[in-house]
């Protein structure tokens, strides 16, 4: 039977191109992108106090855009290019058509046995480099946006604008190359299926470090910081949850069995974690919390990420039980007893939801990674979790060492970057801006409403009465005013 015309090779569809895999990879990339823009933009704008809605959304929006430009200029090839150092690739642009339309290759280095013979060839997915570059960008962007959750409500926006490209280049690319791009941890056989360490452990540790150096919110914000729109917060959380199918489903670089397992396990673990977190809220506080449910959902998604396509679904339930309880204990109990955790103002608790849950997921993967599933995907042969005997005990040790490297690198790199920025730009907003919020920082407010229980203040809202002094912050958008 003749080959259908749609599958005949053409200049735009070479023989190596699998249109199904390419379509899934671009779809997965879009799903991950939607987690950030608009997912986390909406979530951050809604979960914070009303006066910080615009600023929180803008920090996420800016990070998404700035990360993309830095990624294609130099970041992608520092994370996935040819080796420069055991933990870093050679930076170069990913912009030319010769690079972008050729068949994807990842990582750029072959894995060898100790005797020098080849164990696993470099992987060549059936789609072009352009699809891979964009897919990996969405991971870099969401890492920075998750990090931002630790410093909402007080970080100087100009300092944040300088921090984003510097942290992506000097911190994120190191973790990505070491674990995914052919670095020393990748060749050693550390398992990080889709970013439990590269994304979540790093964002949690870097966010906590940044929160320490930036300093706390004003006292009134720390004592009372209610979400300004719980229903919209749930819409952002929903985009985050559904987008995770692209997050973990796209990691195998093909629409294959590992991808299917990953999507199912991701949702199982998230649902289990949400239910456990909510049950603990009811048991200890007498009522379920919507914010708590969102936190539980997130810890489940984070925990399953290091091993989503490599563990059995019963293990995903176990991981969900642990991710719904251990981060709950660290946030609700240990946080109140630790002087360090009390001192550092981590606005959204990113340390607990991402660092603790990411570390937990990486270690549990070292226990539950199933040998048959590992053979479907991993470059290092005989990889398995400790519960399956053989070299599993060594695998758990590898997971622990890799976590220590990621923690150490992010502590040091984030500190150096922020101290360098502080030489030129204050890291924290001045107190007068912190008292007012969005109106002072951006000249804009999230809602064009007045009269929601507050007294009319002509110094803030302006007045037609010339006897009042005009507000110094009156240049921003105000919505439409109708005089009747």
Explain what you see.
The chain is an all-alpha fold and 484 residues long. The chain has 19 helices and four strands. The chain has a two-stranded antiparallel ribbon. A hairpin with a 2-residue loop joins strand 1 (83-85) and strand 2 (88-89). Helix 5 (157-179) packs antiparallel against helix 7 and helix 7 runs antiparallel to helix 14 (350-368). Mean pLDDT is 90; it is low at 461-484.
Write a short abstract of this structure:
This protein has helices at 19-47, 53-80, 97-100, 129-148, 157-179, 184-188, 196-214, 219-223, 230-249, 257-285, 290-304, 313-337, 339-343, 350-368, 371-377, 392-422, 431-436, 438-441, 458-461; strands spanning 83-85, 88-89, 111-112, 118-120. With 484 residues, it is an all-alpha fold.
The main β sheet shows up as:
2 strands, antiparallel
Strand content: under 5%
How many strands appear in the DSSP assignment?
4
* Lateral strand order in the biggest sheet: 1-2
Encode the helix/strand succession as letters.
HHEEHEEHHHHHHHHHHHHHHHH
Distance N to C terminus: 76 Å
Low-confidence residue ranges: 461-484
* Average of per-residue pLDDT values: 90
Q: What is the structural class? A: mainly alpha
Domain Ammonium transporter AmtB-like: 23-447
Subcellular location: Cell membrane
Family: Belongs to the ammonia transporter channel (TC 1.A.11.2) family.
Protein name: Ammonium transporter
């Amino acid at each position: 039977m003749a080959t259908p015309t749609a599958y005949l090779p053409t200049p735009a569809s070479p023989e190596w191109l699998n249109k199904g895999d390419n379509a899934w990879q671009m779809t997965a990339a879009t799903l991950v992108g939607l987690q950030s823009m608009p997912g986390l933009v909406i979530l951050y704008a809604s979960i914070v106090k009303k006066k910080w809605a615009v600023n929180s959304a803008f920090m996420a929006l800016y990070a998404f855009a700035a990360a993309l430009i830095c990624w294609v200029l130099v970041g992608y090839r520092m994370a996935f290019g040819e080796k420069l150092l055991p933990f870093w690739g050679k930076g170069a642009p990913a912009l030319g058509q010769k690079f972008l339309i050729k068949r994807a290759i990842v990582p750029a280095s072959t894995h060898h046995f100790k005797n020098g013979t080849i164990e696993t060839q470099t992987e060549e997915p059936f789609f072009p480099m352009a699809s891979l570059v964009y897919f990996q960008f969405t991971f870099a962007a969401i890492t920075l946006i998750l990090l931002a959750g630790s410093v909402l409500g007080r970080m100087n926006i100009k300092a944040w604008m300088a921090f984003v490209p510097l942290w992506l280049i000097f911190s994120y690319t190191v973790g990505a190359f070491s674990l995914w791009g052919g670095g020393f941890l990748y060749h050693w056989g550390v398992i990080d299926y889709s970013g439990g360490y590269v994304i979540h452990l790093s964002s949690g540790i870097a966010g906590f470090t940044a929160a320490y150096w930036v300093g706390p919110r004003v006292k009134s914000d720390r004592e009372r910081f209610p979400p300004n729109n719980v229903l919209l917060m749930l819409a952002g959380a929903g985009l985050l949850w559904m987008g995770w199918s692209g997050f973990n489903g796209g990691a195998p670089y093909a629409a294959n069995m590992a991808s299917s397992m990953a999507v199912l396990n991701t949702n199982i673990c998230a649902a289990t974690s949400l239910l456990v977190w909510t049950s603990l809220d009811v048991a200890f506080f007498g009522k379920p919390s919507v914010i708590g449910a969102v936190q539980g959902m997130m810890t489940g998604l984070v925990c399953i990420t290091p091993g989503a396509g490599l563990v059995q679904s019963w293990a995903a339930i176990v991981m969900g039980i642990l991710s719904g309880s251990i981060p709950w204990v660290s946030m609700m109990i240990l946080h109140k007893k630790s002087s360090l955790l009390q001192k550092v103002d981590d606005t959204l608790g990113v340390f607990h939801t991402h660092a603790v849950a990411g570390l937990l997921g990486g270690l549990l993967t070292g226990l539950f990674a199933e040998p048959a599933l590992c053979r479907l995907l991993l470059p290092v042969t005989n990889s398995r979790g400790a519960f399956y005997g053989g070299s599993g005990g060594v695998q758990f040790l590898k997971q622990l060492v890799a976590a220590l490297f990621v923690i150490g690198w992010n502590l040091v790199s984030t500190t150096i970057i922020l101290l360098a920025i502080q030489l030129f730009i204050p890291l924290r907003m001045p107190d007068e801006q912190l008292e007012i919020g969005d109106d002072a920082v951006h000249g804009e407010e999230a809602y064009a409403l007045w009269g929601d229980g507050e007294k009319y203040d002509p110094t803030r809202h302006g007045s037609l009465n010339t006897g009042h002094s005009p507000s110094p912050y009156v240049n921003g958008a105000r919505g439409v005013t109708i005089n009747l």
